[in-house]
Amino acid sequence: MKNVLEIKDLSLWVKKTGIQILKNISFGIERGEVVGIIGESGSGKSMTCMAILQLLNKRIFNINGNVIFNNSDLMKMGKEKLKIIGKDISLVMQNPMTAFNPTLRIGTQITETIRVHNKMSGKQAYEMGIEALEKVHLNRTKELMHSYPHMLSGGMLQRIMLAITLMLEPKIVIADEATTALDVNTQAMVLEHFCQMKKNNISLIVVTHDFGVIAKLADYVIVMKDGEIVEQANVFDIFDRPNHEYTKQLLDARILTGGR
Amino acid sequence: MIQVNDIYKTYKIKDKYGNKSTLNAVNGVSFTLKENTSYSLVGQSGSGKSTLAKLLVFVEKSTEGEIFIDGENLSLLSKDQIRKKRSNFQMVMQDAKSSLNPKYTVFESISEPLLIFEKLSKNQLNHRVMNLLNMVELPQELTERYPHQLSGGQLKRICIARAIALNPKLIVFDEAVSGLDVTVRKKILELLIRLRKKLSATYLFITHDIDVALFLSKNVFVMKDGVIVEYNQNANDFSSFKHEYSKLLIKSLPPVYPSQNNNLKVNII
Fold first, then answer.
1. I need a labelling partner for B128 at 20 to 30 A (CA). Which of A73, A156, B93, B257 fits?
2. Assigned domain for B15 exists
3. What is d(CA B35, CA B41) in angstroms, rounded to the nearest whole number?
């Protein structure tokens, strides 16, 4: 099958100091496939996501390589064209508390996102937003649309983020530590939503440091350390036959109790 | 022995319209902690576990109820009297970086509790601090560094050193390992287990991660909405948990191995 998104030899430097952050990152993702990126803090997982989405400031960073989506290279695209691509590739961020604008109501932020990408009236967008919130099993949607981010819990906000993500019917969703800040039960709920996305043939890039999340979702795993991919393989290969020392270390660091 | 009798903590809060109401963070909790034993307390965020920790080390005063340490009722004492007893109960906070003074070197941070409670000569102090650094397995070269020059794992170890400096009777670890990298987390957990063998005290580990709780102790309290819903004294196995809520927590854990993908289904609430 052909890859939906392909990253070729992605390298990243800080211009001022010349420090290399990413070294020759290459991987591809198929339709409906889940790629898990695992690594500790400072390994360059988040930077990879940012580089894919062209969110990095080119005055600060030197970026090399290709990010190929729909036969076109995102690296060479202008800002206006990238905006259209934004509908197809969505990002779910780690901290839902800071991802929203604290001065705007949730409803405003949802309808704003819809109307950037689709031509429709405010009323239509509002109804579409409510429908999207219902899809992620949120209750009292009308009240939610009228509330401000600080009034809601982290789990709720993360689900609203998912609603916004799903609303635009993206082809690829990038989840950057999307469940790290959540409780176990809320995490289980959010992971279930990701499973449903997978069933709907949405490709997922899941960035995490938790092998549990990888085991639940991923088909293919990339292990990163210090800006390099140290190992990439099928999930089962990673769990059964880890090749690299670092992968073994990470697997050993898991805490498994209670007769598991 | 630490005995907690029917303890309550109520906060006054204001809702979004400015209406005043009360929030029962801890809602009638009683238990007994024995000497030389370790306990874990598991609960979701908002379950009141951190409030309970603060009540136990007298950072906050309980609204109702009594806390006995070795038969002495400490909830009757005034603030000054509590301060004199502070060496008996210590706490390690979640965020190591913000619980250390950025202007103090490692040496100053660790020697601070010793200087307050004990009269030591310079040599003795030096000796004690080096001893403590050894206990938490940090190299002695670090003594002149400042917190911003150290990693998260090292800072955590310094916090632990400060807490054990005065040989307290009770040490409370509030989310001791959350926010750390997985490999560092494992090392700190192993350090805690080694320390437990060397130092006799009552340990209470507060965590939201049921795996960490079971890794550290067999005696597990499960807390929900300010109440302890289950006390499991032999928590070797997940099947030994009886309460519905504990079972839900266990069911929510992500799978260990990828092949379990399809069997695991959590109801979306």
1. B93
2. no
3. 17
Name residues whose C-beta falls within 8 Å of residue B254's C-beta, 6 or more positions apart in sequence.
A187, A188, A191, A210, A212, A213, A215, A216
Whether B268 is covered by a domain: the verdict is no
pLDDT for residue B16: 66
Chain B residues within 8 A of A213 when measuring between CB atoms: 254
Q: Does A88 touch chain B (CB under 8 A)?
A: no
Show me where the domains of chain A are located.
Answer: 100-169
- Kindly state whether residue B261 falls inside one of the protein's structural domains: no
Which has the closest alpha carbon to A158: B35, A5, A166, A50? A166
Domain that residue B93 falls in:
36-48+87-254
Give the angle subtended at the CA of B89 by the CAs of B85 and B91, to the nearest 5°. Answer: 135
CB contact under 8 A, B268 and A40: no
Q: Which residues of chain B have pLDDT under 50?
A: 262-269
Model confidence over A120-167: pLDDT tens digits? 899 999 999 999 898 888 888 888 899 999 888 888 898 898 888 888
**Long-range pairs, B183-190, Cβ under 8 A, ≥24:** B183/A40, B183/A249, B183/A250, B183/A253, B184/B151, B184/B152, B184/B153, B185/A253, B185/A255, B186/A252, B186/A253, B186/A255, B187/B153, B188/B153, B188/B156, B188/B157, B189/A255, B189/B215, B189/B216
Residue B18 in domain? no
Q: Distance from first CA to last CA of chain B, Å, rounded?
A: 41
Asked if A87 reaches chain B (Cβ–Cβ under 8 Å), the answer is no
The CATH code of the domain that includes B220 is 3.40.50.300
Number of domains in chain B: 1
pLDDT in tens, A87-128: 889 888 888 888 899 999 999 999 998 888 888 899 999 999
